[in-house]
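Changelog excerpt

This revision adds worked examples to the README so contributors can see how folded entries look when concatenated. The first example is reproduced verbatim below.
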Amino acid sequence: MRAACTGFTVLLAPLPYIGRLLATFAITALLVAGSLLFLKGNVAFPASPLVAALLAQMILLVIARWVFAKATRALLSAGSLDGRHVVTIGEPVELLGLSAKFLLRYCGLREVFRVPVANNRGCRSGEVLAGLDGALAAAREHGAEEFLLALRWGSRELLETIRSRLRESPLPVRLLPDHNIRTLLGQCGLFTDGLSLPVTIQGAPLTAFERAVKRTLDVVGSMTAILFMSPLFLLAAITIKLDSGGPIIFQQRRTGFNAKEFVIFEFRTMTVLEDGPAITQAYRGDLRATRVGKFLRRSSIDELPQLLNVLKGEMSLVGPRPHAVAHDREYKVHIADYGFRHHVKPGITGWAQVNGLRGETRSLEKMTKRVKLDLWYINNWSLGVDINILARTCFEVLRDRAY
């Protein structure tokens, strides 16, 4: 069971809100009564039963809130109440006063991992950066939904260091009020009077609705393509097997959404099956390509098995092209903001591919241009953009730019 942030606080401690609740109820009752007096005409409404009914409803409302509070506390004690899974990053002095119970009760958050960062050796010390890398790895491992920062609000340099490091993650990043602010506002004051705390300092690239729309397009599009292209799948498999020995499907580790590794599927087009720390990119006239493989690569038929990756949820029809893990590690060092490509699922085709950057990227300059186009896509995503890219991809395949 998931907890909602503000409503959860009200359920656990309803007494401070009873006055506001009764006032709202009384105003509503007066409006209803006024409307009846205005509309009744010659019809008489007995006042005593109406007042008695309103008083009974108010009493029942207070009792219901009390029962809900008891039930919520029981669920909390039994561990049956869950919240959004978060990785908490903070200074030791702030983390000391921040319990898991507080986070669940007042923020609706379930802490799955905690990373203390001390900046006594400098905000960009190896210890701090290693801790942040550990937080990124823990978020992937535990399926966290966001990062929560517990820092003194005066630690601006440390905050900027953390923000910079977490920018490669697609997860939201939120900043809790520090101990002094929490003491000043009080626990209940953190989530009332229109305040929105914790403060969001990095939002997710796509909203939940946008992700649902994109996923719907992926599932419907990939299933339709597999259904209509199944004869082509069978023909490609037969010709690969007859042309050369070895597996029909080539599998290689790639880096996907949130920098998670996954295994990509392609029709085998080469005599090698590289998936190690050093991988040579395919290039025009590559002697490693088989006879059938050359045609499959030129026509992009070799990429059709990636529709299975789309169905599995590892890829999307449209998105930044996934690179081999070995290449990903290399480019991440040399290209600024390269990690932003992992804010969305990788795609079979993308904005860079329909703008002339399809195929080999042996030079760093060319890869930098591809990353720039990928980031434009992420920042400007819409359903219309995806449909436009899919339509343009059909024409791009016919231009014979692959090899």
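The second example, added in the same revision:
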Amino acid sequence: MTRSLHGPVPREIARVLAHLPERVRIVWPHHQLCGIELAVHSWQRVNGEIHLLVTLPDGSRACLPAAGTSLWEPVVDDDRTAVLLTAEGIRELRHLMEALQARTRRRHRSVGGKSK
């Protein structure tokens, strides 16, 4: 736990809050601003829940629950390609691993047999 003006905060959350992004996207599906990016100014705790102080499209400021924003989503580097592993891909990977293990066992047997 890390201490802050807002009370104790788990270390992982403290790292995120210490480096707030300039903007977050609303990901709360039922919110009228879902999909909109908003400027972030600070954070605070409201009844134990982390809220972000953001600027709304009309220029006013409001506190929104951080759970309804992209704050907790992993940062994705746009230069990287996303990898999706399917069930078929997992089966292929398993077959490759089994073949590699079998080859390693054969090598160990052949090396072991020569030293006797």
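Reviewer comment on example two: The first strand starts at residue 23 and ends at 25. The beta strands are 23-25, 37-46, 49-55, 61-65.
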